[in-house]
Amino acid sequence: MPRGFTLARAWTRCLARRDMPSGKIPSPVVIVTGAGSGVGRATALHFCRQGWRVALLGRREEALRATIRLAPAADRKRLLALPCDLGDPAGIRRTVASVLKRFGRVDAVINAAGNNIPRRSLAELSAADYAAVMDANLNGVLTLVQAVLPAMRKAGHGTIVNIGSEAGRQASAKAGAAYVLSKFGLTGLTQTINAEERPHGIRACCVFPGDIDTPILEKRPVPPPPEARARMLQPEDVAACAWFAVALPARATVEEILVRPSQPWVPPSKA
Question: What is the domain class of 3-14+28-256 according to CATH?
Fold first, then answer.
């Protein structure tokens, strides 16, 4: 077995043993947003395969249950579907309370939910669309982080992984103004968590993926063709990055991960 996987599993066992009396040791707990599709779905299943208990958050309960059905039957009892709108701060806080009531702890949070809109340029962006993107991509993340901090501080550890975008490092016309602003904000939030919460044993990582083949691509003004999507990152690639950031021993913090397609698609030139 590769050394990296050996260390990761040892860290999972270490998390499970923290502050626990002798006897049966429960597995660690992760909250994954956007778990009904794309990166969130892949991440929830990845952590499930590693033996974690997973709280799946998303707007559509049926999509969350579809994710659970993709897990082996024996593992599904460790998966909890919790419909949650990231635009509803009170609902987010209630959802975190439900996770703590069910599992008693939160060891990690993966903020994988994301949204964009077709009419995204500065010239055509509406106030309503701007608010919807900011709620899903940034405001809801902030509320969720604030909601889990007391439990993580009490435990003395926690890892928060924010799935950003290359558009959170360099503005992109194809991403649009609201998406770019939200992802730059997510970068700043990640840095703030590390600046303020390290003394409490809490660390954060921002993952900056290039293009990923997920349903959000259908919201582009001109969706990419199949040959372009075939060259993009897959949700499982980004899920592996999130797992890497969480599975490292507590002495190490990966603050940023930049991951891009190895062979990006180039549109054929027009003669």
Answer: alpha beta
